[in-house]
Specification:
By secondary structure, this protein is α+β, with helices and mostly antiparallel strands. It contains 11 helices and 7 strands. One of its GO terms (cellular component) is plasma membrane.
Length: 375
């Protein structure tokens, strides 16, 4: 393909990348926390405390203990308690009420955990990494592309406790979606765990789609006419942000497979089938991350190759001009010697003849380098 064709291709890639970015901003809806006001006096960390019976929300301003008492007395429904970055004192009463294991409670308070699913008696404790795409006009060597958070979920026979860490990952949309599907919500706390996992994995795929626009933008810049001048820090920063995304996605594969195939308390077989679908989506996200990593490696290698080629071209030009300059240097060096008997030294036209010979030789050498592409 000709140079003009390459430039047209790069221009079209940049145009497509710009259109993708505009479309992404246009379709992005604000992640508003749709959760309801706190119904428990346990502290500021409480986001919501709601009772569900037969998949429908129970009305009434009951605190947490009253809600649990009603559910356990009737043996119907479950309680969903939502917390956001609780302290040890704020979660202590909750841990006592639901008999939560101290190790799981410690993980829920301090966060920064690896995605996992653990069983403590009849209670499941799941850790999910949430991700959010950080909007920016252009990727730089210091751009933040992916922001991560965590959601911890305690699942029992009659309760779900969600503990969220981070500035994003609101569970309001998940709650609203479940309340719009009472039949699914009636399947119990495991249905809530599935909805949360499904929403988290869907966010992975959304972030990866937006991540691809950044990769396309950097790729177009690298293969542009002045691609060797692209800051390699932009590519490296994308690899760092992709690694952050990989830490959230890849370790989650095994826990989701356990939820899909291993008999666990509070997870009925009909819900395990839904987790198999989540596992498929998670596998797709992991494969896409691997593909992006390979693509970024290729882009980085191509950029380094371009830099090497540009340096070689510069060295060839420098070498060619040094060879041209060596011709008059040699002539002047010879005739600068203090000898009486030298060819044409005392001839009237010796000086202009020597200048003409030097100029002619320089021209010959210049044309030779020009013909070979060194200049």
């Amino acid at each position: 393909m000709s140079m003009a064709g390459n430039l047209r291709k790069v221009g079209s890639l940049r145009k497509v990348g710009g259109l993708r970015r505009v479309a992404r901003l246009a379709r992005r809806r604000p992640r508003v926390d749709l959760s309801h006001p706190a119904r428990s006096p346990l502290g500021s960390a409480v986001v919501n405390c709601v009772t569900y019976v037969d998949g429908r929300r129970e009305e009434g301003d009951h605190d947490l203990r009253e809600a649990v008492r009603r559910v356990r007395k009737s043996e119907e429904g479950f309680v969903w308690l939502g917390l956001h970055e609780p302290t040890e004192s704020e979660i202590a009463e909750v841990a006592e009420l639901f008999d939560l294991h101290p190790l799981a409670v410690e993980d829920a308070v301090h966060a920064h955990q690896r995605p996992k699913v653990e069983r403590y008696g009849q209670t499941l404790f799941a850790v999910l990494k949430t991700v959010c795409y950080v909007e920016h006009t252009q990727v730089t060597a210091t751009s933040e592309v992916v922001d991560t958070g965590e959601i911890m979920v305690f699942v029992g026979s009659d309760f779900v406790i969600t503990v969220r860490h981070g500035r994003h990952g609101s569970l309001g949309p998940v709650r609203e979606g479940l309340e719009a599907d009472p039949e699914q919500l009636a399947k119990g706390p495991a249905a809530v765990l599935h909805a949360i996992a499904d929403g988290v994995v869907d966010d992975y795929l959304t972030v990866l789609d937006e991540f691809q626009a950044d990769i396309d933008e950097v790729e177009a810049a690298v293969f542009a006419q002045n691609g060797a001048k692209v800051d390699p820090g932009r590519i490296y920063q994308l690899k760092r942000e992709l690694l952050e995304l990989k830490r959230a996605v890849v370790p989650l594969s095994r826990p989701v497979l356990e939820l899909a195939g291993r008999p666990l308390p509070s997870v009925p077989p009909e819900i395990q089938a839904y987790f198999r679908d989540v596992s498929d989506h998670l596998l797709r996200a992991a494969e896409q991350i691997a593909a992006f990593d390979e693509l970024l490696n290729s882009i980085l290698q191509a950029h380094l190759a371009q830099v090497t080629v540009a340096q070689n071209e510069d060295m060839r030009k420098i070498t060619a001009w040094a060879a041209i300059v060596a011709v008059p240097t040699m002539g002047c060096g010879i005739y600068g010697m203090n000898f009486d008997h030298m060819p044409e030294l005392h001839w009237r036209y010796g000086y202009p003849l020597m200048l003409s010979v030097i100029a002619g030789l320089c021209l010959v050498v210049y044309r030779g380098f020009k013909r070979n592409g060194w200049l």
